[in-house]
User: Which sequence fits this backbone?
C-alpha cells in the first residue's frame, strides 16, 4: 500500500534506492544480527532494524528525505519487507556468491572505508583556526579591481550602431532600444551585463566602458563580436563578503584539500605501478548489471 501523497513511481524509486543501501546489509547479515537497535518488523524471523531504515533513508532524494519520519517510516519498512523476502530467495539461488554481487560489495565496502576515513581526517584537522586562516587567504586574494554595471547594444554593422546612437541621443530608453535592436544574448534583459571587471571583457570593450561617466552613451565600439553601444549605470570597488557568507564554501574547500593531502602522502609511501590501457581493455570480462 502506498501512503497518501506518494505515487507508485515514487515508491518504486524508494525501493530501488533501498536496494542499493542494503547491498552491504544483505552481505553482512551476521553483523547486523547483533544490532541492538529498535526493531521495525520481522520477516520470517529475520529483523528489520532502525539501522536498516536509516541506511535506506540516507540514499533518498532530498524531496523524500525532508518529509516527516512518520510518513517515511511505513513506506520504507514495507519496501524493506519486500527486499528481505526477495533477497532471501536470491541467497537460496546462490546470488550471494554471484560476481555481480560480490564485486559490488567489495567496491562499495572500499568506498565506505574511504569515505569514513576521510570524514575522520576532516573531523580531526578542520578546526576554527584553519577556517580563519582560509578566510584570511580568501580576503587577501579577493579581486578588488573596479567593477562597472554595464549594459550594451550589440549590432552587426557600424551603420546600425550609428543609428542606435542617434536614437538614444533623442531620449530613447536604453533598455527598450536594446530589446529592439540588439542581437546579443543580453537583449531580453535590456542589454544588461551586470557588474564586470576590466579583465572580464575584451580589451576594445573595456577601454571604452571604463572611460565612461555614469549614464554616458559611448560611440560605436568594434570587437570580434560586432559593434557595441555601451552605457554604465554604476561603478564600485567590491569588498570581500563576511566570513559567515563563505564559511560553508571554505569548509568544503579545506576538507577537499585535507583529504587530497592525505592521499598524496599515502601515494608518496606506496608502491604504485601503472599499466597502459590496451585497445581491448573494455572488451573483456565485464561485471553485468
Assistant:
Amino acid at each position: 500500500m502506498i501512503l497518501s501523497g506518494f505515487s507508485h513511481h515514487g515508491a518504486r524509486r524508494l525501493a530501488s534506492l533501498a536496494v542499493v543501501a542494503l547491498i552491504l546489509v544483505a552481505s553482512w547479515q551476521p553483523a547486523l544480527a547483533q544490532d541492538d537497535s529498535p526493531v521495525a518488523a520481522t520477516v520470517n524471523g529475520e529483523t528489520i532494524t532502525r539501522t536498516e531504515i536509516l541506511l535506506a533513508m540516507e540514499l533518498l532524494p532530498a524531496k523524500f528525505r525532508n518529509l516527516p519520519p512518520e510518513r517515511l517510516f511505513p513506506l520504507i519498512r514495507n519496501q524493506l519487507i519486500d527486499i528481505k523476502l526477495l533477497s532471501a530467495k536470491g541467497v537460496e539461488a546462490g546470488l550471494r556468491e554471484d560476481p555481480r554481487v560480490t564485486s559490488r560489495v567489495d567496491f562499495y565496502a572500499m568506498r565506505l572505508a574511504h569515505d569514513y576515513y576521510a570524514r575522520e581526517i576532516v573531523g580531526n584537522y578542520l578546526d576554527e583556526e584553519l577556517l580563519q586562516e582560509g578566510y584570511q587567504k580568501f580576503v587577501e586574494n579577493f579581486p578588488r579591481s573596479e567593477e562597472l554595471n554595464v549594459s550594451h547594444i550589440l549590432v552587426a554593422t557600424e551603420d546600425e550602431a550609428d543609428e542606435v546612437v542617434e536614437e538614444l541621443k533623442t531620449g530613447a530608453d536604453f533598455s527598450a532600444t536594446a530589446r529592439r535592436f540588439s542581437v546579443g544574448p543580453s537583449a531580453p534583459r535590456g542589454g544588461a551585463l551586470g557588474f564586470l571587471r576590466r579583465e572580464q571583457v575584451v580589451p576594445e570593450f573595456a577601454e571604452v566602458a571604463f572611460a565612461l561617466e555614469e549614464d554616458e552613451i559611448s560611440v560605436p565600439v568594434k570587437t570580434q563580436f560586432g559593434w557595441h553601444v555601451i552605457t554604465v549605470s554604476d561603478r564600485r570597488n567590491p569588498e570581500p563578503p563576511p566570513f559567515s557568507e563563505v564559511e560553508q564554501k571554505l569548509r568544503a574547500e579545506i576538507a577537499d584539500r585535507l583529504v587530497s593531502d592525505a592521499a598524496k602522502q599515502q601515494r608518496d609511501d606506496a608502491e604504485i605501478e601503472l599499466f597502459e590501457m590496451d585497445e581491448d581493455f573494455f572488451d573483456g570480462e565485464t561485471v553485468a548489471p
